[in-house]
Task: structure prediction
Amino acid sequence: MRIPYSELLDTLTAVLLRRGFAPARAALCAKLFAETTCDGVYSHGLNRFPRFLRMIENGSIDIHAEPGLASSAGALERWNGRRGPGNLNAHAAMARALTLAASHGIGCVALSNTNHWMRGGSYGWQAADAGCIGICWTNTMPNLPPWGGTRPTLGNNPLVLAVPRAAGHVVLDMAMSQFSYGALDSYRRRGQLLPVDGGFDAAGQLTRDPAAIEQTQRLLPAGFWKGSGLALLLDLIAASLAQGQATHQILPDPELETGLSQIFLALASGGTQPIADQIVASLGDGIRYPGQQVLQTRTENLANGVPVDPALWTQLSSS
Amino acid sequence: MRIPYSELLDTLTAVLLRRGFAPARAALCAKLFAETTCDGVYSHGLNRFPRFLRMIENGSIDIHAEPGLASSAGALERWNGRRGPGNLNAHAAMARALTLAASHGIGCVALSNTNHWMRGGSYGWQAADAGCIGICWTNTMPNLPPWGGTRPTLGNNPLVLAVPRAAGHVVLDMAMSQFSYGALDSYRRRGQLLPVDGGFDAAGQLTRDPAAIEQTQRLLPAGFWKGSGLALLLDLIAASLAQGQATHQILPDPELETGLSQIFLALASGGTQPIADQIVASLGDGIRYPGQQVLQTRTENLANGVPVDPALWTQLSSS
Result:
């Protein structure tokens, strides 16, 4: 089932207004959810919206809370997210980093006490749309065993890097696990094996069977020891700079996962550069760049309507 | 064969002085090489020194060139490395980023027209020793096929992240390929297979055979599409911000690889933090953190002497 983008946006906005969001915040929060679905990142758009509503109900998210400045060192600021909606907090933090970059060439906001930012790539697109290079990452609840371990003591800590380009921004949005739980779910439902090993089975062997990995919860870090090390460093830097919670302090329950630490960096690149086009062209024929598929899907969904789950859509429209 | 650290340092300094280095630059350049060997990163210390000398002889490296400020936007500066020695340029760039961070909370130096920085981790340790978080990366000549391609159009673009800690800095120094050519060489010489797939064989199949990968030169990006995407973004950001060469413009010959672009970020973290110790402790028993092995090796080599190749040592001492 496909619906026009504007209808998706209006419906989500209306739901948030009925929940008590201030009008401007309802509009932006709905826009971030709707854009995510429109861009084809279905797991973190509309399909994640019911959980977002439940986390408002269970008190994890305070819909009225806005981030507050905790301290400033010039181009580096620390903000307290006060457990507001994660996507609004993240958007405000990247906006502030962009303002700092306009004055100092570079700006960094370290955000504590926030909630899941939904699609991390949104804040990369935000920076690139402003003509800046954007780099941001978040920690998460413990959900990834370090290389050499069996207990999930690391987060899969998504990392986003974005470079502005007139022909289409290059935006990489990657978690530190080779596959997300959402990806495992999709492969299992389609009855497919993963294209490469994605974790360990009950016998402790690497496997491409998504169900076996869901059972052990032993996801594989991307690049084995490399993704494991990178996940650790991202948590260390986020928690240290934000003076916020580290992964090991975050409740390991997706519906209670709150108090996250995030980093937002913006760098003035002088806008879109021919150099970026040359680099993308140098990859060779048939090699896609990160963000290319997003732009294609966005164009298609804006033209033909955005795919939504009919049951979910009916439920939301009347909620 | 083991020699005292001070003898290694003095010998390298003497060689550089005989080559015409200014005294202070000879001392720092030798120190960076000697520390790398002392820390156990043998591939990029003394063992890389003969190639460094050859690249002075072939004109790739100008021993007298010092980096010059090209432009400033406050906390973000662009410097021209003028093809000076890569480790001296990188050390100067991180020192400048640290100075900027002292004023602005964060500092970034984008360096163009430089040479191979040898061990990237050196500049992470440098930042952490100054009580700052350090992030830096370099592009390289084309040596890594993108995921889905067979031609090496990406660089393996090493990335360094460092967090200061009183009990031992956490320093991650990772290239974007799952294994470096140096690592493939070591496994092949020992007659061992790689612990995980490291690239493609002549039939286009993933393999753990180091010799087969050396033959095809089709290294595997760490995390498949993830390392491929990250390598691209690191090149895009480095070349764009530095206004320098991108990977596709760098001569694909290790002895002529020059004109690199690099990024150095320093962030004031308030010095070493208990939070970092808590995070490292949370990993669980037996899980090593990045940098732990380096510190152990450093301690051993300082106590027992630094291992050197006898033939290389004899040759250098008389050169």
About this structure: The mean pLDDT of chain A is 96.
